[in-house]
Amino acid sequence: MLRRAQTQESERPEISYALGQALYLQDKPEEAVEALNQALEKDPTLKGVARLRDLIQEIREPSPLFRGASFIVILLILFTIHEYAHAYSAFKFGDDTAKNAGRLTLNPFAHLDLIGSIILPATLIIQQASVVFGWAKPVPVNCQNFKQPEKDYMVVSFAGPGANLLMAMACFICLQLIALSMRIISPEALSLHLTIPSAGVAITGIAGASYFANFIFIVKQLMFTNLVLGIFNLIPVPPLDGSGVLGGILGPVGRQRLEKFRPYGFFIVLLIVLTPIFNVFLFLPFLFVWSMLNMAMSAMGFG
Known about the structure:
By secondary structure, the protein is mainly alpha-helical.
């Protein structure tokens, strides 16, 4: 409709402007820039057109190499924090098994599984797979060392995904502080894609915009990846941590029944990851986090 109107009323710049906005929303940046340039040719003073065009042209889509390398680093950090949280909580409850095994450390090499932490994620990233996943070496835990085995094991199981969710919250706050700093430094600064997962970021009107954009991209990826890892591990299927949490709630009999699924756990998890089932688990948490972040950014005049 807008294209037809642009052809029929070629002298009206606002139609080209509206077409440019529509094309951008349809993820057609090159066509959007062309339409916005046509609007500027008809009326160079039309408010907001040049800034939107400049923003679209400034969107920095990270190269596959940068995207892959940053994602590997993020996974190494998340796996390390996740497993350390398990080891630390177990130690606090009286079990030094993980400590004696050298797992009560923030050294990533103590927690990484060669295949699950490095080779598999790297292969999936290189192949540009739609789903990237992996795992670290499980932390050894001896429930007999706990004073309250049922309750303590439930907390130890939750500690890993809980740490990931706390990191996601910290990244959420960090993104808002970055946006607030940009607004204080430059009241005229504009942005695009500050809240969209995996999307490149565009910033104009501020010195060092490219550095801000790259840093925001990494923090944003760190936040959403933490959220995914935390929610994923809370799925109550052995060997995921959620089974330990659910087992503590159900009691000894319920946990025994849950353990019967352990031999099939890997295949169940694979089915969840490779089908839309996981999207069901992610939908509400992702919607909530994205909505809150989008509201905060919009309140500061960013998009």
